[in-house]
Specification:
Blueprint: H1 2-8, H2 11-34, E1 41-45, E2 48-51, H3 52-70, H4 80-103, H5 110-118, E3 124-125, E4 128-129, H6 131-141, H7 145-167, H8 173-183, E5 186-194, H9 197-200, H10 207-216, E6 226-235, H11 247-256, E7 262-263, E8 266-275, H12 282-300, H13 305-312, H14 316-319, E9 324-328, H15 335-342, E10 354-356, E11 359-369, E12 372-373, H16 376-409, H17 415-421, E13 426-427, H18 444-450, H19 453-456, E14 465-466, E15 471-481, H20 488-522, H21 525-529, E16 540-542, H22 551-559, E17 569-574, E18 580-589, H23 606-633, E19 636-638
Helix pairs in contact: 3-4, 4-7, 4-23, 7-23, 10-20, 11-16
């Protein structure tokens, strides 16, 4: 049969065979090209995609920052939408800044990047950068060093651009005066507070209202989607055996690594150099040698080496120290110099000059430490441990390849890996997307894999994840609890509280607007509130940074215009807690520049500090306007269905 095919594999018949074989392979290749691991895009900025993975990491960072600021681990689901919106805005703004920075030629060098990473307190151990701490942090965040370094590069790049805008901002004398008039302005303010708490006791909600609210807001009362996974893991340290290494192997390893058990000799030397280039004319070399001989004669005659070196040595760095070169080991000095000191005794002054390519040296060996080699018996146990560890590492990398192949070839089951490695799968408890767990679940890479589409929706094994420190793991879904509405009975009290607060806010708002209308119509603020047994707060002169009055009232008071004489302005404002306030601005005083304070040279000038603050504030405003301009000119697409 095969011979017949071979005989006929000519001309058109051969081409038909080639096409029949090629088509399936071509289609398979096309399928692989168009159906890789699916990526989810949350936004697109001038063609640069912001992926769901990056976005979710940013959201988690935002949550962590809020919890750190509040100093407590609280459930932030009530502000999830705001966190996501803020994160998306920040990532889009960062991307337009990175793009304009690259377009204008700004770059972050490797040296600056390394220095900045080394300065992170989280990566330091006793004030020194620790590679172990660095890798542990990246593993916990499910990041690789290139990913993290790119993130830092982007951050440094945008900071660089931002600082450029801030420092180029000009603040004229007129600008300073205008800002001072506004920022130091003071206003006489009184206000009337309508607290929702004074209405709550009069409010009730019917069962129909409660049920209706529940039906319309079920998405606000959902359980948290959770999963548990089963997994198998290969860990290098588990492969360490108690097998003893034979003596011959230990001794061979000792000889192979003898350098690591050797402490090189060290010398503490003082020298004096009369410099001369060896390519100089003979008379110049002779003159330098004569000078050196004269100096050596003076030292031999008893004059202090240090003083002569300070005055006459052509090696400026050591001359400052009286010729002292400090301690050094092999290979740090030119060969003639090192060869000479090896023949000397501690305290000895070399009786003749030493010539090198740098000139003529006068040398004194102050102290010497001989080479030390740790004996075999002293390091035997260490050699044993190192060889066992090496064998375990070799076994790990050998088994890792098989582990990965089995996981890939059997994407619907962990059983082949269990059998091949004689291991048992482990399981986790149920956890959600935002979990900050222990052990395996402390790693963001694992949590993200558990909620990825291949694992959660398609039922496949995850990819084999390298968690660092010779630790790989593959997981698959065990249990899945979808987010569902909580029973009405469970959330009834929450709904009653929400409805009560809403109705109280509505009553406070309605009464506040009624009072505003009466005041504007009758011009008598006290008469308007007397029937309701309410009291105005005493009038007080306040600045923009007033803290004794609710912030929103202060902000509203400074947004209002300037009242005419004896004719106050009134405005209503809703407060974040649901209360309502009627604000009265009675008078305004413009800010004036203060006289320079008398300070000593060590105390910063408050006026200069204020000018710097004003300049930076103006720069921040210009920078934000610049960012908004970049965004308006950019082609930005967002995909809410992939975000919320």
């Amino acid at each position: 049969m095969l011979q017949n095919i071979h005989d006929r594999a000519q001309g058109i018949f051969a081409w038909i065979i080639v096409l029949l074989i090629a088509v399936p392979f071509a289609l398979w290749g096309v399928h692989e090209y168009f159906d890789p691991v699916r990526k989810v895009v949350v936004a697109d900025v001038n063609g640069k995609e912001i992926l769901d993975r990056e976005f979710r990491y940013g959201v988690q960072q935002q949550r962590n920052q809020i919890r750190a600021m509040l100093k407590q681990d609280i459930d932030l689901s009530f502000m999830e939408k705001e966190i996501k919106e803020r994160t998306l805005t920040r990532m889009i703004e960062e991307e337009v800044l990175v793009q304009i920075s690259f377009n204008t030629g700004l770059r972050i060098g490797d040296a600056l990047l390394a220095r900045r990473i080394n300065e992170f307190p989280a990566f330091q151990d006793n004030g020194v950068f620790s590679q172990t701490s660095y890798q542990r942090f990246l593993d916990s965040q499910g990041m690789t060093p290139p990913d993290f370094e790119m993130q830092i590069r982007r951050s440094l790049l945008t900071d660089q651009f931002r600082e450029g805008v801030l420092r180029s901002t000009l603040l004229t004398k007129h600008d300073q005066q205008m800002r001072t008039r506004l920022e130091e302005q003071r206003r006489a303010v009184s206000y009337l507070l309508l607290a929702t708490s004074q209405f709550k006791d009069t409010i009730t909600s019917t069962d129909a209202e409660i049920e209706g609210y529940y039906n319309n807001h079920k998405k606000d009362y959902m359980t948290t989607e959770k999963v548990s996974v089963e997994y198998v893991e290969l860990i290098g340290k588990d492969l360490v055996s108690n097998e003893k290494i034979d003596e011959e192997t230990l001794k061979k390893s000792y000889q192979d690594h003898l350098a690591s058990f050797t402490t090189p000799a060290e010398w503490h030397v003082r020298h004096l150099l009369v410099a001369v280039d060896q390519t100089s004319p003979a008379d110049k070399i002779t003159a330098a040698k004569t000078k050196a001989q004269d100096l050596l004669a003076k030292i031999k005659a008893g004059q202090p080496f240090e003083e002569i070196a300070k005055q006459s040595s052509d090696d400026p760095e050591s001359a400052k120290k009286g010729g002292d070169l400090g301690w050094f080991g092999p290979g740090l000095m030119v060969k003639p110099f090192e060869d000479a000191i090896k023949t000397m005794k501690a305290g000895e002054l070399r009786g003749e000059l030493l010539q090198s390519q740098y000139g003529f040296h006068i040398i004194q060996l102050l102290e010497a430490k001989p080479e030390k080699i740790r004996p075999f018996e002293e390091v035997r146990d260490q050699l044993q441990q190192d060889l066992i560890k090496e064998k375990a590492e070799a076994a790990f990398y050998e088994q890792q390849e098989q582990f990965s192949n089995l996981a890939f070839e059997n994407s619907n089951s962990l059983e082949p890996i269990e059998k091949a490695f004689n291991m048992k799968r482990k399981t986790t408890e149920l956890f959600d997307r935002n979990t900050v767990g222990k052990d395996l679940l402390a790693n963001r890479k694992v949590v993200e894999a558990a909620f990825s589409d291949p694992v959660l929706k398609e039922g496949f094994n995850s990819e084999v994840m390298d968690l660092g420190d010779q630790h790989v793991v593959v997981l698959r879904l065990k249990d899945h609890e979808e987010a569902v509405p909580k029973p009405l009975a469970e959330v009834k009290d929450q709904i009653v509280s929400t409805l009560t607060t809403q109705k109280a806010k509505e009553k406070a708002l309605a009464l506040g607007k009624t009072l505003l209308d009466e005041i504007k119509q009758k011009g008598d603020p006290q008469a308007a509130v007397t029937p309701y047994k309410l009291t105005w707060q005493p009038a007080k002169w306040i600045g923009r940074k007033e803290t004794a009055i609710p912030f929103n009232i202060v902000r509203e008071a400074f947004k209002m215009g300037q009242p005419a004489e004896k004719n106050a302005l009134y405005q209503g404002v809703e407060l974040p807690n649901g209360d309502y306030a009627v604000v009265a601005v009675l008078a305004v005083k413009e800010g004036v520049e203060s006289s320079p304070a008398v300070t000593d040279s060590k105390t910063p000038d408050p006026k200069q500090q204020e000018q710097m603050y004003q300049q930076r504030a103006l720069g921040e405003t210009e920078f934000q306007q610049f960012v908004q301009q970049l965004k308006s000119e950019a082609e930005i697409k967002t995909y809410p269905q992939n975000i919320f």
